[in-house]
């Protein structure tokens, strides 16, 4: 069979073996695997099988013990064991966080949260005023009780009614505005206090969610390589919800109790400094214990949030791969996997509740024990004539007030620490500085030529530093040329495309666009010049029109431009088939384009790339995930584009016809350029390319037999 006549033949590789250097994987294997077990890069099952969420930095001994216990209990470790068992499924090795995280400097989550709170300082100020006003009267109650007792003891009964009026006036903060006109401040203040604190929590949660989302979409590909979607969704959803709930009720309660305690202490000192010091000494163990307790609550909450993120990842992966779950009937296994994560979350919740109980017991013991101390010492001071019975009574009431608020403070402290625990990961994400920015940089002025130069590029993936994927690749691609990248699976073709697309930056060497280092270019502008069609087309859930015009200004997405791009992409006819798509461009494609066939999705993805009229078009095995008929449709579009010579095209292809039509073929082997030239030149040369083609043809002949 003459090589030159293999127009429609495909270079289907013999299946990849370690020693084999064939082009790609066998097409029939592709057909079976593409929908089931061989997801593309973005779907590689790195999460479920690879990592446990248990990677916290907690520094309390108790928690370390807890981990050990968990390991014994097999509550967390099943994931680790699973990870080991499932290692062959996992294309990405476990990643050291150190390798991938690079925050500028560690930021204290409390500090970061404080920043958000500081932005609402005026609301805080007014709500605290409202809080004080709403509760002001209660501060004076014990003092008045003391006065009542002393007046009764001294039989000054005539003074009691006026004391009563004063007390009512103070409690309700009733102010006489004019004759017969009174304003009752406390109720108004209570209303504002309730409202303001709730508004503060809503605002902080909104700002946090917004900042988190904005920060996430601006991260580089490297960041997402080492994180799972479900985890990130949980950070935006669950973590911010904990913060919001915590802020709305607990901060106001915390402040209220705190103010009560401070004001009551002032009264205590006024009444008797000796008794006050005795009281502080007797409740000191509770104060010290509360620091430890607060830390524990913070760490437990961090674990809970991590656990929630983990189960959210599981759920996200399972539901987005529901067809695979059905096909392999793994519903039970998935439910079990979820329940293990869920149980671990419960375990930490239980742990929190247990320590809350211990704290209550501890506080109760010391707090009420201190009352006995005060009664004993108080009677001694009374005997010495240093204090009246009324003052002792007032002191005991203030003390009760303090102790009650202490208990409230303790329970709230747990929640406040939970807020801090929940914010740890959020802060980590906010502080991560992407290596590749999404804004800034230059635009090339004047006529754009559309040339790419790759100069001595060396590269390894940040999550796989020990494997050098590109080992000093140098290629120059001239204007409107079509260059085909070929080579065995895993040799680095897609990685090279990723360099040009600037998903990653080279470790060494440069990628230039029209002679300018792409690192210096404005990414938004650069991506308007370079478009990519990937192996697995990814669409958004909007209409066909929205998908094709994705990211373009509305005036560039007209009927005319849409028609043009769709005709070029061989998508015009099916979109305008009234039986299939009565709503034409307005057809909603469903989540990830689920309502379209693979070939239709891919042709829309091609139209999406073309409508931008990019100077450079990158085609990363754009037909490899398709069945034969869809592939034919998409290939027709690509062949036309390649022949038109209107763009610089860099194509990773496995069809001989596509490769043969290219102006230049670059054979990549083990991360290096092995050969380059036209189809004829390379065949004449009789090197790697020729043997690849021959081997391929042989395998096809065998298949035909
Ligand atoms: N995101 C990633 N993180 C870590 N390693 C990766 C990543 N993507 C690819 N690799 C690794 O880099 C190497 C080159 O992969 P690349 O996708 O560039 O090969 P390829 O030639 O395009 O293969 P194929 O033809 O099978 O698509 C492979 O060993 C692969 O496992």
Automatic annotation (TrEMBL):
Keywords: ATP-binding, Membrane, Nucleotide-binding, Transmembrane, Transmembrane helix, Transport
Any one Gene Ontology cellular component term annotated for this protein: mitochondrial inner membrane
Transmembrane segments: 122-145, 157-175, 253-271, 277-294, 354-375, 395-420
Domain ABC transporter, chain residue ranges per copy: 452-695
Superkingdom classification of source: Eukaryota
Polar residues composition-biased segments: 1-45
Keyword Transcription regulation in annotation: no
Domain ABC transmembrane type-1 residues, every copy: 125-418
Subcellular location as annotated: Mitochondrion inner membrane
GO molecular function: ABC-type oligopeptide transporter activity; ATP binding; ATP hydrolysis activity
Pfam name, any one: ABC_membrane
SMART domains: AAA
Region spans: Disordered: 1-60, 82-108
Membrane topology (UniProt): Multi-pass membrane protein
UniProt feature coiled coil, ranges: none
Chief subcellular location: mitochondrion
InterPro entries, per database record: AAA+_ATPase, ABC1_TM_dom, ABC1_TM_sf, ABC_transporter-like_ATP-bd, ABC_transporter-like_CS, P-loop_NTPase, Type_1_exporter
Biological process, per Gene Ontology: oligopeptide export from mitochondrion
Name of protein: Abc transporter b family protein
Species assigned in the record: Stylonychia lemnae
Gene that this sequence comes from: Contig7001.g7493
């Amino acid at each position: 069979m003459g090589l030159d006549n293999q127009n429609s033949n495909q270079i289907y590789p013999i299946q990849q073996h370690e020693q084999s250097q064939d082009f790609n994987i066998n097409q029939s294997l592709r057909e079976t695997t593409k929908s089931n077990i061989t997801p593309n890069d973005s779907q590689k099952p790195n999460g479920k099988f690879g990592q446990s969420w248990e990677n916290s930095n907690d520094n309390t001994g108790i928690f370390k013990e807890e981990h050990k216990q968990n390991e014994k209990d097999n509550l967390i470790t099943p994931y680790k064991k699973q990870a080991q068992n499932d290692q062959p499924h996992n294309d990405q090795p476990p990643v050291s966080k150190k390798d991938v995280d690079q925050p500028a400097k560690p930021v204290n989550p409390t500090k970061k949260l404080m920043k958000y709170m500081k932005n609402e300082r005026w609301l805080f100020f007014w709500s605290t005023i409202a809080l004080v006003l709403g509760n002001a009267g209660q501060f004076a109650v014990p003092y008045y009780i003391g006065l009542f007792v002393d007046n009764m003891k001294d039989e000054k009964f005539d003074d009691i009614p006026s004391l009563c009026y004063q007390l009512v006036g103070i409690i309700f903060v009733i102010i006489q505005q004019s004759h017969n006109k009174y304003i009752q401040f406390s109720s108004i203040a209570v209303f504002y206090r309730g409202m303001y604190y709730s508004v503060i929590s809503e605002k902080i949660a909104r700002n946090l969610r917004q900042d988190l989302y904005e920060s996430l979409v601006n991260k580089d590909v490297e960041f997402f390589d080492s994180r799972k979607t479900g985890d990130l969704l949980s950070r935006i959803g669950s973590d911010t919800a904990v913060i919001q709930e915590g802020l709305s009720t607990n901060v106001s309660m915390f402040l209220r109790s705190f103010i009560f305690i401070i004001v009551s202490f002032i009264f205590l000192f006024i009444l008797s400094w000796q008794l006050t010091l005795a009281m502080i000494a007797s409740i000191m163990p509770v104060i010290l214990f509360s620091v430890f307790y607060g830390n524990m609550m913070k760490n437990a909450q961090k674990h809970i949030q991590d656990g929630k993120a983990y189960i959210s990842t599981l759920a996200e992966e399972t539901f987005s791969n529901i067809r695979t779950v059905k096909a392999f009937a793994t519903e039970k296994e998935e439910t079990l996997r979820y329940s293990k994560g869920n149980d671990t979350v419960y375990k930490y919740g239980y742990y929190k509740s247990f320590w809350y109980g211990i704290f209550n017991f501890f506080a109760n013991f010391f707090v009420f024990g201190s009352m006995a101390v005060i009664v004993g010492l108080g009677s001694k001071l009374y005997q010495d004539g240093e204090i009246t019975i009324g003052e002792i009574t007032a002191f005991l009431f203030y003390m009760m007030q303090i102790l009650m608020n202490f208990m409230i403070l303790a329970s709230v402290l747990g929640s406040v620490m939970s807020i801090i625990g929940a914010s740890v990961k959020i802060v980590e994400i906010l502080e991560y500085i992407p290596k590749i920015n999404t804004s800034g940089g230059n635009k090339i002025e004047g006529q754009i030529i559309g040339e790419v130069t790759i100069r001595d590029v060396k590269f390894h993936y940040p999550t796989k530093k020990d494997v050098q994927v590109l080992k000093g690749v140098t290629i120059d691609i001239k204007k409107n040329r079509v260059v085909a990248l070929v080579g065995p699976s895993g040799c680095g073709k897609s990685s090279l495309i990723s360099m040009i697309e600037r998903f990653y930056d080279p470790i060494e060497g440069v990628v230039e666009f029209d002679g300018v280092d792409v690192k210096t270019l404005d990414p938004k502008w650069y991506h308007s010049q370079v478009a990519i069609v990937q192996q697995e087309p990814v669409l958004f859930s909007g209409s066909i029109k929205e998908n094709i015009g994705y990211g373009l200004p509305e005036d560039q997405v007209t009927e005319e431009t849409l028609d043009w791009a769709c005709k070029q992409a061989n998508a015009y006819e099916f979109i305008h088939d009234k039986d299939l798509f009565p709503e034409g461009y307005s057809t909603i494609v469903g989540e990830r384009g689920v309502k379209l066939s693979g070939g239709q999705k891919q042709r829309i993805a091609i139209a999406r790339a073309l409508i931008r009229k990019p100077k450079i078009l990158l085609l990363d095995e754009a037909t490899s995930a398709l069945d034969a008929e869809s592939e034919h449709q998409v290939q027709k579009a690509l062949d036309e584009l390649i022949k038109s010579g209107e763009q610089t095209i860099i194509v990773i292809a496995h069809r001989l016809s596509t490769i043969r039509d290219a102006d230049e073929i670059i054979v990549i082997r083990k991360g290096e350029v092995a050969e380059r030239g036209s189809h004829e030149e390379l065949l004449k040369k009789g090197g790697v390319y020729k043997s690849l083609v021959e081997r391929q043809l042989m395998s096809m002949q065998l298949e035909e037999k």
